[in-house]
From TrEMBL:
It comes from the Eukaryota. The lineage of its organism: Eukaryota, Fungi, Fungi incertae sedis, Mucoromycota, Glomeromycotina. This is 14136_t:CDS:1.
Amino acid sequence: MEKSEGHYVKYNVRADHRQAMVSRMYDDEELSRDIQNLCFRCNRFLYLRLNNLRQRAGQEFLLKQCEILF
């Protein structure tokens, strides 16, 4: 599990939950769409991508380990 300092937001990366989680977290539709369209194959990539979007969101993220089944 990755974490960074600041305001933490729990983010469940299960595919069946991500849209509901994102819509609750953000009013910014463009940012929500960016997060929904992320690659979920690698948790490290997901963290780096969200960390990059954090500047726009004004939020930091606490990510759960990816639970996607391949």
